[in-house]
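--- STAGE predict ---
source: upstream dedup step, 1 unique chain passed
mode: sequence only
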Amino acid sequence: MGGAAVESSGTYAAASAKGGSCAAGPSVVCDDQNPCTEDQCMAVVGCQASPIANDTPCPGSPFGACSEGVCQNLTCPLGYRAIANPGDATQPKTCEAIEPAWGQRADQPSGVYSATTQAGGKVVVDSQTGLWWHGGADGPKATWLNAKSACDQLVYAGKSDWRLPSPLELSTLVGYVQAKDPFTDMAAFPQTQADMYWTSHDVPALAGCAFGLSFGTRGIGGKVKNDSLWFRSVRTHTLTKQVELRYLTTSEVVQDQWTGRMWQRAAAASSPVWAAAVSACDGLNLGGHSDWRLPSVRELLGIYRTDLTVVPAVVAAVFPSPRDAP
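--- STAGE serialize ---
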């Protein structure tokens, strides 16, 4: 029984024998356990189940609705996931809120950006990557060459080393849990367009093309350099050139003095599936600490070096591969 259905009781075997009326006797509840039917005790035929109105919400399944007497789950909204019905595994699935995206999920909570004014110009500093972003209006749409030239020649906030960001750098601004576009932190970057932005890198083997990244789709792809796209200037904090001042290492862990984060120094020797990686990190006891976790996308990008052409693009002396680990 579900929705506005009314429970009916009666002895339907007796009802048939008494010529069309429900007789008194041991109570029999006409409830078929279907939330999308209305159950009644009917004369002669006994219990009858009739479909309730379509689109009536299914009890116990807040994002489901009845259709022709059957509870059909709707697509779970952003921030929720489908799970088995906790009351009865045979019943339609319901939706459960996903816990906040700390490290083990796709994105990092807000609060990593700080806006400041330098020499009359607004800049946004990302504490996770150390990058400084132009905090004013994004550049008007321009060809790749004109966008690159505008960034290279920019004197802003007392600095003259602004440039077009790499694909990796620009991707650190992408939000992975926002409900709608533009997919970024709009409190930090309120003028972001749900559109393609230029990056500094050419597309290998495609002459005349460079990578663009969309805050409307989170996608990245090659664009003809004569196309007109938005752009945003970035600069690298002076300290990012002084790697020896950034990391403190032991044989097991790396302390990042810019962000305050501690990293496992050597990567795992195998490549497990995501769930196994989450479990392995949660259960890790290393360097005298037991509160390890899988990093977020943004955290992991923070140790990449976009100025390196080797793979992996991290400082090998700080983060050795498993075979090179001390």
